[in-house]
């Protein structure tokens, strides 16, 4: 009789240990049960239930329209699938910027109703009170600096952030502030690689990069982008590991052809 090996859950403590050991951290986005199960079994350490679901799952132009209820729905699906990965959920636009009380209520709803392990929110000193209040309730917080997609209409562009000295200095200060407040990790998005290196080396907590160079303590991509399900999005930082758009299109076309010709179902596919 074989004894099933115990699956150890990745925790915020494990991520800190990986940084101290010099081992890179892997993070991908997940929004549904089926794909999240595959990511988890493949060995990804962190699954981010990203507000990018607004783009890749719902077809919106930005991340702004997705609601807290919708994020909880996606997170619940991922939590049911993942036996090992740490599940981090984005607080969507409007669920934390208004006041720290609203931020805490939003974070509590995510934790209670989805069963996730942590939340992520964008910004530095501007959201310090919200971060502090969420952490005071015992909820782990991941920060997010650099390009912050929820502020796209303020920036007006998805170009690289913090290329100028003033913005780079603010990002460094914000990273230190988030660490001091108690965040367990920070996502750095679309900033110069040298700045990503400086920030990562200055912090005790791990950084997760997306377009922030190779020196971050981990990397994250949107799963639909790296698998080639989406086609239009082609930033420099994206590496496509599959072209699922082409593979799925071919499979669907073959299915249609087989049904039309009477080839499907055949004798082995009927009762």
Could you characterize the architecture of this molecule?
The protein is of the alpha/beta class. It has 2 domains: 229 residues, Phosphoenolpyruvate-binding domains (TIM Barrel, Alpha-Beta Barrel), CATH 3.20.20; 27 residues, no CATH class. The protein is built from 11 helices and 8 strands. Strands 1-2-3-4-5-6-7-8 form an 8-stranded parallel beta barrel, surrounded by 7 helices. Helix 6 links the parallel strand 4 and strand 5. The radius of gyration is 20 Å and the shape is globular. The protein starts with 11 loop residues before the first helix and ends in a 10-residue tail after the last helix. The model has no long low-confidence stretch (mean pLDDT 95).
The average pLDDT score comes to 95
Instruction: Tell me the total number of β-strands.
Output: 8
H/E series: HEHEHHEHEHEHHEHEEHH
CATH fold title of the largest domain: TIM Barrel
Adjacency order of strands in the biggest sheet:
1-2-3-4-5-6-7-8
Using only C-alpha atoms, the radius of gyration works out to 20 Å
Shape designation: globular
The assigned structural class equals alpha/beta
Write the layout of secondary structure elements.
Layout: H1 12-21, E1 25-29, H2 33-42, E2 46-49, H3 53-56, H4 68-81, E3 86-90, H5 100-114, E4 118-120, H6 128-136, E5 141-146, H7 152-155, H8 165-181, E6 185-189, H9 193-202, E7 207-210, E8 218-221, H10 223-226, H11 244-261
Parallel strand pairs: 1-2, 1-8, 2-3, 3-4, 4-5, 5-6, 6-7, 7-8
Helix pairs in contact: 2-4, 4-5, 5-6, 8-9
């Amino acid at each position: 009789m074989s004894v099933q090996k115990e699956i150890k859950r990745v925790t915020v403590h494990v991520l800190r240990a990986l940084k101290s050991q010099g081992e890179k951290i892997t993070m991908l986005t997940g929004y549904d049960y089926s794909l999240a199960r595959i990511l988890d079994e493949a060995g990804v350490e962190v699954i981010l239930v990203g507000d990018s679901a607004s783009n890749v799952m719902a077809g919106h132009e930005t991340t702004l329209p997705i609601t807290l209820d919708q994020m909880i729905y996606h997170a619940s699906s991922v939590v049911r699938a993942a036996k090992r990965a740490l599940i981090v959920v984005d607080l969507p636009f409007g669920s934390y910027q208004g006041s720290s009380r609203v931020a805490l209520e939003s974070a509590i709803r995510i934790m209670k109703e989805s069963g996730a392990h942590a939340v992520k929110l964008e910004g530095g000193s501007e959201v310090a009170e919200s971060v502090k209040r969420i952490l005071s309730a015992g909820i782990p917080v991941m920060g997010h600096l650099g390009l912050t997609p929820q502020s796209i209409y303020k920036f007006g562009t998805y170009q690289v952030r913090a290329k100028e000295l003033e913005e780079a200095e603010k990002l460094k200060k914000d990273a230190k502030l988030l660490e001091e407040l108690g965040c367990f990790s920070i996502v750095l998005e679309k900033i110069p690689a040298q700045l990503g290196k400086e920030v990562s080396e200055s912090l005790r907590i791990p950084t997760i990069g997306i377009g922030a160079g190779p020196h971050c303590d981990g990397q994250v991509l949107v799963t639909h982008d790296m698998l080639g399900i989406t086609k239009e999005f082609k930033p420099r930082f994206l590496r496509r590991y599959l072209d699922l758009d082409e593979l799925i299109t071919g499979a669907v076309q073959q299915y249609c052809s087989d049904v039309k010709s009477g080839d499907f179902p055949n004798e082995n596919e009927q009762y």
